[in-house]
Model the fold of this input.
Amino acid sequence: MSEVPERIAALRELMEEGRIDAYLIPTSDYHESEYVGEHFACRNYMTGFTGSAGTALIMQDWAGVWTDGRYFVQAAAELADSGVTLMKMGQPEVPTLEEYLEEHMPMLGTLGFDGRVINSKIGEELKKRLESKKISFAYTEALVGDIWEDRPPLSAEPVWILEDRYAGKPAVQKIADLRAEMEKRRADVHILTTLDDIVWLLNIRGNDIPCNPVVLSYVTVTKDSLNLFINQKTLSGEVRAYLEGLGVTICDYQEIYTNAQQIRCSRVLLEKGKVNYMIVQCLDESNVILDEMNPTVLAKAQKTAVEIENLKAAHIKDGVAMTKYIYWLKHNIGKIPMTECSVEDYLETLRREQGAIELSFTTISAYGANAAMCHYHAVPGHCATLEPRGLYLVDSGGQYLEGTTDITRTLALGPVTEAEREHYTLVLMGMLRLGHVKFMKGCSGLSLDYAAREPLWKRGLDFNHGTGHGVGYLLNVHERPVGIRFRVVPERQDSAPFLPGMVCSDEPGLYIEGSHGIRTENMIFCKEAETTQFGQFLCFEFLTYAPIDLEPVDVSLMEEQDIAYLNEYHAQVYEKIAPYLTGEEAAWLKKVTQPLRKL
Done:
């Protein structure tokens, strides 16, 4: 930790040279990605805080990091003796970053940041917020890069083509559809910088961000041109020929800024909350900016029939891995040494044996009270030992050519308490009920969330996260624009109505601090139900097939319909998964998916 004060001192020297009063360091890359590569770990480098979310502010006489409740304990430990103050977001008497800047920035002061890692919407809001102090921005100052001598280079992994049999629709058709959407909006130019949208549009994939098979790149589209800005070393001859065959002009990655400067007298479609501040500042005043969600977001979320069939295949593979994992855990707990980390590694091995390219996110492997922290991650050397008692939660997923998976199972490793049994059953009931809802076309997750929460709410219980999030196809495990939650959270952008082909998670939970945590998660996809005189109805179908542990179930709490849902689901699990198991595993699966009945 002794290096942190030295790094901050070096940054302050550069700030003084540039007459910068405060310097902002977010957790972000040039594309507003949820996860970022090692090159972009500037906040971590400058402060020593390694959590996945947080913003640092460095001033000449003060330094602080704002982060949320998931990281209070971790941040307090990592920031100790660093000279950096932990600012606990959402806590009483703790100002927001904006409030702190309003109070502490001097009149006519200068706020510095790398304009490539702050999105335009945030930049504009900060400017408005600090208007009374007549603050100026120094947004071309990438100061951390001047200090960080051994900074990892930008990722430059090879780009590969996703064949149409997996992609579901040829890229030429996707590009034509995008241009049709631009025409509807009378847009002359579209600037696209979100990596999942870019690789989806072009039917390519890569490995530039952990768990997200995307490619560092930008795209600009007009009626008759499409420019791809990319590290050209990542392109093989085959990929280059493929892209040029689509009418793509290949440019160097950093040329996006000079390209933006050359746009004149155009209606420019872009999403300010996703396009970085520097790009938007490159556009001169002759242009009109159409600030709207990228049209590719809605198109990408509606999986084609081919993609849905592929996803079903991916979930069979993933279900086989999960079933083998549960079998192994149940037969070996208490017999061989197990830690949260070692069992997590074994699960990854099983997934890769089934064809997984990589994980779709960092696995949550949490035993006992650790599972009460819903975003807990086990760390080697500091992880719990599994014992033949209590509950163990594992939330994990894989990236397959056939799609992206995300599944959570909570397992009894031995005797459980009555409270654990009750809570486990209520969560299970909520997951099954949400998976069986039927609803009018036009409903969003705001309307549907009650189905999952009702068993808990009836008893004065709740969980403090969304019940479901959209999921990509061999892409980001968290995908706009749909989700399932009972209130609008604007920054999540997940309140769009459901449409056929949209894929979402179904994952109610319950977390009792210091005791236990429970979550049961299946992925679902939306499809048409019947049309009546009242209109078109929609429903969900499960994609995920893996056994749900019956040992902690209290069947007396379940209604007949809940039992029927569970028995129907388990019959399908056995039918779909058993053919891929060994004889012993299949016999065990038959036993643990036997129909439940009320006593």
